[in-house]
Automatic annotation (TrEMBL):
Keywords, in A-Z order: Cell inner membrane, Cell membrane, Membrane, Transmembrane, Transmembrane helix, Transport
Protein name: TRAP transporter small permease
Pfam families named in the record: DctQ (PF04290)
Membrane-crossing residue ranges in chain numbering: 12-34, 46-63, 84-106, 126-143
Localization, UniProt: Cell inner membrane
InterPro entries documented for this protein: DctQ (IPR055348), TRAP_DctQ (IPR007387)
């Protein structure tokens, strides 16, 4: 049971790595194919789309593990109360951004679902699905982080 839970907890990391590996293999295959003058037109497109998925899922992983770029001047310069209010405002702004990306990304996914890509002939919406999916996961981790930074900190100070 714990093995399955660990898989689900790290699913975005696993898929980001899988997409990255597919991208690397696709690029290498395209380079070797050009070297031997073999036309593999689909390798560039596959590399591009797996790169998009890898980057957006990698963003979720970085956010989840707090490895993204942070400007901590606010936290060090202001008193703890003001710093907490600024952190809450930042998380609320992030939630607004991620909700917007989910809504517009989902609309774009639906609009382009029946449009095939040039060489792979997969739905273009499958590529655009990475935006609302990663944004939805970012919403979950932002809410978790908002809970940890506000409710737990306030309850510990009481």
């Amino acid at each position: 049971m714990m093995k399955h839970m660990k898989f689900l907890i790290n699913i975005e990391e696993i898929f980001s790595c899988i997409f990255f590996i597919i991208m690397c293999i696709s690029v290498a295959l395209g380079v070797f194919a050009r070297f031997f003058e073999i036309a593999l037109v689909w390798t560039d497109e596959l590399a591009r789309y797996t790169f998009i998925w890898s980057v957006l899922l990698g963003t979720v992983v970085a956010f989840k593990h707090k490895k993204h770029i942070v400007i901590d001047l606010v936290g060090n310069f202001f008193p703890k109360t003001i710093s907490l209010i600024v952190q809450i405002l930042i998380h609320v702004a992030l939630l607004a951004l991620f909700f917007t990306l989910v809504i517009y990304g989902w609309n774009l996914t639906l609009q382009t679902w029946n449009v095939p890509t040039t060489s792979l002939q997969i739905p273009t919406g499958l590529v655009y699905l990475s935006v609302p999916l990663s944004s939805f996961l970012l919403i979950i981790y932002t809410i978790k982080e908002l809970y940890l930074t506000t409710i737990k900190r306030v309850s510990n100070s009481l």
